[in-house]
């Protein structure tokens, strides 16, 4: 039996005037899959991600996220996804517990569920005793782990991670990936962008965007074989160097 | 005379409630004409160190010189002879590419023509856009313009604070190629980064974490100091494999690295058999085990855990 598809995209396109930011991208992502979404700066990743999150109306093509249509059902999409990025994550001037309560409320969890989730989350992240600490005072690595856990506090079908680990120390970066694996094992689909090519190798499948197109999509092992490369870094360089348009 | 000498520099930041120890008494020297990397995560103290050495921040205690000049008493001489590219894009967004470059040349009493040789390679890549406002450039082009502006007065020491953060793999590679060409022209370069893989592109590196230096040496020597055997292992179920290995009492650490997990045991002896047993006990399929050489990231993590 075919696995449940959490994202389907067919010829999804976004134009800004004459500029084709995203050009006919076609791909599926399965339930529980860790899907790496790579591309150089300016390749169209952010535009594609914004369409999939229901934040930007596509120009043409078709796509569904968590079973909802990206043209007509953007509000339902927003309720069924989680999102975190390096730049935007938590409210710095709220405490750990307040951030959990705030986002739990935003995602429509009941008070009891929020309480239960808070306790579970604090324990899982070893933040016992830190409930009343302002998020501003947490080390970056803790912040990112907390932000990820909060992004999936409502058990979304899929979570979008936009460069979640930039600047984080190597041990914390790996603990962060531990949380990703765990969420994926629970059936949450992970859609992640990263500039760390070793992280691309943790993904089940990886797509690489060049000039608005998806030029490669496969498991890291198959991509390395197809491009006769020893690492994903080499695969990426081979593809990204073909780019004609530059920058972001 | 060594271009950069740092002796026991301490820097603390105070708020009403707490003291953040940004630099806990660090010392190192940089040799003439080398690329010296300060490598560590966000919050390690890299930017504080750069601001102290570029005379923009007074250290709480300790001493530092750049080209023999004291960072506190001789700050004017230092400012004349160094180039500094801060982590945040700090050029004038409403001036054009060419205007920015002319502005910085004028400030340093020179002209673009006088030192054009030094920036030629880099500037030619952005010259087609020389009338564009700096604020409207792409990330990669902004970075190239900032580097040109930091070089236009032919500095003897160049300070680059996280020049490759948020830059994609292709642009990162190109940027390092530019640095190596500058090094050939005799410029000493201090560069900070959170990307561990960039260590191998430096002549020497200082690994920094929480305001302390973990190690200062050539990348090769740092790797040579990693004494325990390192193993790489993979199987179909990588997450389960990691948990199974981490649960074994003989294991010191198990970290994912691309398609493999890197495993270190508590003792020096080789432990292929232990890994085979763990894989068998967990009923793992398609198991591959091999001894490997550590990389800088392995070393950084081992030093962090000490």
3D architecture notes:
The complex is a heterodimer of chains A (248) and B (306). With 248 residues, chain A is an alpha/beta fold. In chain A, a hairpin with a 2-residue loop joins strand 9 and strand 10 (213-218). Chain A has helices spanning 45-52, 74-80, 96-106, 111-124, 140-151, 170-185, 197-200, 220-226, 232-240; strands at residues 5-16, 19-30, 34-39, 60-65, 68-69, 81-85, 158-162, 189-193, 205-210, 213-218. Helices cover 35% and strands 26% of the residues of chain A. Chain A has a 6-stranded mixed β-sheet, sandwiched between helices. In chain A, strands 2-1-4-5 form a 4-stranded antiparallel β-sheet, with helices on one face. With 306 residues, chain B is of the alpha/beta class. Chain B folds into 2 domains: 4-220, P-loop containing nucleotide triphosphate hydrolases (Rossmann fold, 3-Layer(aba) Sandwich), CATH 3.40.50.300; 226-305, Alpha-Beta Plaits (2-Layer Sandwich), CATH 3.30.70.100. Helices cover 33% and strands 28% of the residues of chain B. Chain B is built from 10 helices and 14 strands. Chain B has helices spanning 46-53, 75-81, 97-107, 116-126, 139-151, 169-184, 219-224, 238-246, 272-281, 296-305, and strands at 4-14, 19-30, 35-39, 61-66, 69-70, 82-85, 157-160, 188-193, 204-209, 212-217, 230-234, 251-257, 260-265, 288-292.
Features:
heterodimer; A: 248 residues; alpha/beta; Rossmann fold; 6-stranded mixed sheet; 4-stranded antiparallel sheet; 9 helices; 10 strands; globular; B: 306 residues; Alpha-Beta Plaits; 2 domains; 10 helices; 14 strands; 28% strand
Write a brief caption for the model.
Chain A is of the alpha/beta class and 248 residues long. Chain A has helices at residues 45-52, 74-80, 96-106, 111-124, 140-151, 170-185, 197-200, 220-226, 232-240, and strands at residues 5-16, 19-30, 34-39, 60-65, 68-69, 81-85, 158-162, 189-193, 205-210, 213-218.
């Amino acid at each position: 039996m075919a696995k449940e598809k959490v994202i389907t995209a067919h010829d999804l396109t976004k134009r800004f005037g004459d500029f084709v930011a995203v050009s006919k991208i076609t791909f599926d992502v399965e339930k529980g899959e860790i899907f790496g979404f790579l591309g150089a700066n300016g390749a169209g990743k952010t535009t594609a991600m914004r369409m999939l999150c229901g934040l930007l109306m596509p120009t043409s093509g078709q796509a569904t996220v968590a079973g909802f249509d990206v043209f007509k059902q953007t509000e339902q999409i927003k309720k069924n996804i989680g999102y975190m990025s390096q730049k935007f994550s938590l409210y710095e001037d709220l405490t750990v517990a307040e951030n959990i309560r705030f986002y739990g409320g935003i995602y429509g969890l009941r008070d009891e569920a929020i309480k239960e989730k808070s306790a579970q989350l604090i324990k899982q992240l070893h933040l016992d005793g830190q409930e009343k600490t302002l998020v501003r005072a947490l080390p970056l690595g803790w912040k990112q782990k907390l932000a990820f856990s909060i992004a999936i506090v409502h058990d979304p079908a899929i979570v979008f991670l936009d460069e979640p680990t930039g600047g984080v120390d190597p041990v914390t970066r790996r603990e962060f990936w531990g949380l990703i694996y765990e969420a994926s094992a629970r059936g949450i689909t992970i859609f992640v962008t990263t500039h760390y090519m070793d992280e691309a190798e943790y993904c089940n499948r990886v797509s690489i965007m060049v000039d608005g197109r998806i030029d490669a999509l496969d498991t890291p092992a198959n991509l390395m074989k197809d491009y006769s490369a020893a690492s994903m870094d080499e695969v990426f360089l081979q593809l990204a160097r073909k780019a004609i348009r530059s920058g972001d | 005379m060594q271009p950069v000498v740092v002796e026991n520099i301490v820097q603390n930041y105070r708020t009403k409630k707490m003291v953040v120890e940004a630099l806990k008494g660090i010392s190192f020297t940089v040799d003439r004409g080398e690329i010296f990397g300060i490598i560590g995560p966000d919050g390690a103290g890299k930017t504080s160190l750069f601001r102290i050495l570029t005379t923009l921040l007074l250290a709480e205690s300790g001493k530092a010189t750049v080209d023999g000049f004291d960072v506190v008493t001789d700050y004017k001489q230092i400012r004349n002879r160094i180039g500094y590219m801060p982590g945040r894009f700090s050029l004038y967004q409403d001036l054009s590419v060419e205007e920015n470059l002319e502005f910085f040349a004028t400030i340093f009493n020179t002209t673009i023509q006088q030192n054009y040789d030094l920036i030629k390679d880099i500037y030619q890549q952005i010259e087609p856009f020389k009338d564009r406002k700096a604020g409207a450039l792409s990330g990669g082009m902004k970075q190239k313009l900032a580097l040109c502006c930091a070089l236009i007065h032919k500095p003897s020491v160049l300070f680059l604070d996280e020049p490759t953060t948020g830059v994609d793999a292709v642009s990162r590679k190109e940027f390092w190629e530019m640095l190596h060409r500058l090094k050939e022209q005799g410029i000493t370069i201090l560069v900070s980064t959170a990307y561990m893989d960039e260590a191998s592109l430096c002549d020497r590196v200082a690994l920094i974490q929480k305001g302390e230096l973990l190690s200062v040496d050539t990348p090769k020597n740092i790797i040579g100091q990693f004494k325990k055997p390192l193993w790489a292992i993979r199987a179909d179920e990588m997450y389960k494999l990691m948990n199974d290995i981490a649960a074994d009492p003989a294991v010191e650490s198990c970290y994912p690295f691309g398609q493999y997990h890197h495993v270190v045991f508590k003792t020096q002896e080789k432990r292929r058999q232990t890994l085979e047993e763990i894989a068998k006990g967990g009923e793992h399929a398609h198991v591959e085990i091999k001894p490997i050489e550590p990389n800088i990231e392995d070393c950084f993590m081992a030093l962090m855990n000490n």
